[in-house]
């Protein structure tokens, strides 16, 4: 399950970055803001997975 979550986090980060760049390039502030939000969502998900890995018993 953790691999799925990590992959989803990476996908959200990439999707957000693309939207942010495209929104900035075409001057669409709404798209740029949605991209920033999606990228942040991916960052948070990745951080959560790193935390879970750090506290996982070995």
Mean pLDDT: 93
Count of individual beta strands: 0
Low-confidence runs of at least 5 consecutive residues: none
DSSP helical segment count:
2
Largest sheet: none
Strand residue content: under 5%
Distance between the ends: 17 Å
What structural class do you assign from the helix and strand content?
mainly alpha
The percentage helix is over 70%
What is the overall silhouette?
A: elongated
The run of helices and strands is HH
Describe it for me?
- With 58 residues, the protein is mostly helical.
- It is 90% helix and 0% strand.
- The radius of gyration is 14 Å and the shape is elongated.
- The two termini are 17 Å apart.
- The mean pLDDT is 93.
SSE layout and pairings?
Elements: H1 2-26, H2 29-55
Outline of the structure:
It contains 2 helices and no strands. With 58 residues, the chain is mainly alpha-helical.
Structural key phrases:
mainly alpha, 58 residues
